[in-house]
Specification:
alpha+beta, 9 strands, 3-stranded antiparallel sheet, single chain, Nucleoside Triphosphate Pyrophosphohydrolase, 4 helices
Amino acid sequence: MEILPFKISVLIFVRDGQGRHLMIRRKKAPNQNCWSPIGGKLEMAIGESPFECACREAKEEVGIDLVPADLHLFGMVSERGYEGSGHWLMFLFDCKKTMNRVPATIDEGNFEFFEREEIDKIAIPPSDNILVWPVYDKYARAGTFCAYRAQCGGNSLPERIVDEEIGVPGQ
């Protein structure tokens, strides 16, 4: 198995009062020129937690002040070999606070709100169709949680392998 760096990040799913999702069109890798929820990498050298990172990134990227109680952790995904450049552990947060303005463009990209159905038709990272949005639909909306993993890279899209689900009806 190839030795690659391991990175830890967060994605924050922010909506407006109409339920539309705030997305950033990224100017930089990973996911350059694709639309994604806001987020970023943990500052591991200072021991930043995923909740602290999500609050910091929300403030830095879109100017919204959050505290951990404003967030619901609905997913944790381990992506092995993403884009052949590294392994990622991502924490997925649903934001309970709404934001009703399009933030100013930043050096990382520009923002826009999208209806959930529109997101399936815009340029998003191909793996997000498997690893991010179906998990959001099933777990964030229900207030539940899922830990899962995926082998990325190669010539095919990754498969989502669920390690644990919490709070899912029928479990």
